[in-house]
Specification:
The chain has 543 residues and is α+β, with helices and mostly antiparallel strands. Among the domains are: 70 residues; 153 residues, Up-down Bundle (f41 fragment of flagellin, N-terminal domain), CATH 1.20.1330.10; 148 residues, no CATH class. Helices cover 40% and strands 25% of the residues. The protein is rod-shaped and about 175 Å long.
Length: 543
Amino acid sequence: MSLTLNTNVAAINARRNLLINSRNLGKSMEKLASGFRINRAADDAAGLSIAENLRAQVIGLGRAVANSQDAISLIQTAEGGLNETHNVLQRVRFLAVQSANGVLTSRDRRAIQDEVSQLIDEVDRISATTIFNSINLLNGNVGALVSTDDPVNSIQGLVVGNVGMGGTFSVAVSAISVGELQVKNSELFVTIKENGDPIDATANTQLQSISRFQDFGVFTGGIDSVTMTLSSDGSSRVAEVQVFATDTLGELSRKMSLAINDPGVVHDLGLAATISDGATLVSIGSVGLAPAGGGIGATSIVVTTPEPGRNMVFGGESSILSALGFNEIQTSVFPIFSITVMDIGEGTIPNRSAKVYGDRATGLIQGVNLRFRATLDISISAVDKTTIQAYQVSKVVNNSLAGPDGFVVQVSPRPLSFQIGPNHGNFLNTQIGDMSAQSLGIDGLNVSDQFIAQESIKSIDVAISQVSKQRAELGAVQNRLESTIANLNVAGENLAASESQIRDLDFSNEVINFTASQILTSSATNFLSQANALGQNVLTLLR
């Protein structure tokens, strides 16, 4: 090799290797300080891409575990509310069974009815106030939203369970049978002359002058007024009628009529509005044979129910009930309707038709019960009369515009959707039905009459079964979420290990690299110093 001065090739070579070793030493120090094998994309471009994908999965799995735990908390909140609803329904059933026993008086049943009404209100309160993070869980909002274009006719859609895909449905309702009213008549009212001859009472006769009121001691011992109650299986309301000794039969009839329906107050039963069409439902009748062998015209009070199929129930002071002696002479019969449902939206379901006995249609729209006014296509005439035994009562007739009464129902599913995985589509849907008293079918529960109390047990059993079904579904979802959490934890652990294999540093191996780079850097520095000193050899030639 020639001896040159301007270009020191050995120094250049030593410097280049020094820079390489210094760079390797810096990278090793960075890795050892951070604990990561990959600190930038240049460290391992392909490895970084794989590690970031794995990291996204690990982070998503951790959040999915937290989501599932939150979902369990929500379900436990809903299930806790339903547990209390179950307790309330069991108490209501206990009271209904108690009221169905014949050893109780009307006053006893009235007290029982008061508690039942409060318990039904509690069911509605639980439905309205069971909330998780501002989400109302038991009022049907997390099942579906149901709307109709016919609020005037009191058409209601009740969410009773898991709904389908929803849609827009046309519903046509027409009456097949108009049903029958329940008719009650009082005992015959007479007054007794001083010579012992009976005389028919009239609408103007005071109650204290009527022999039956005297016989049963309604107004004795200084009592000048008693309380009678009216209720019906169509409403949970109980209306009170204050009866005075100086009231006439006509005044008693008017008070009873107002107790059934009085547009000016909210203490009535509210059953006859826009339905009776002006019909007289409580009247003074002259029917049957007069007492003591007289002619036609014995006086009594005739009561007809304001809606077909409903039963009128009387309670309160036992003495006045005995004096009135209301007798059921006809069992009420609900109207029968024909209902047809057509899917006018996506058209995914075939047309469905059914005969409905009563005021609720089930199974025609998945997860939604249609409840409608039982007199949708019929009314009670104020003019037309019908004879039941010897009594002239208002007649149930088809409306003047009788025929299919159509309306549209829109169902928008609103399921609870839980994101239980790290990727798109990893969700679990569930629905909670409407757990209000109306949806459970107990909003009109009445146990103030022995017969109706016996019938109400069936409705309560259906409600208990509905709540049990919903609780079982929630329990199954909770069990699934717990299994999901266990699976997510295992998957997260395995993916974290996979990411660690790519991203994390093997300290034992890197320490070897660091030591080597450190020695090489020191050596290169020394040899660069030696290479720079080679130019000194030229001076020896110049001496």
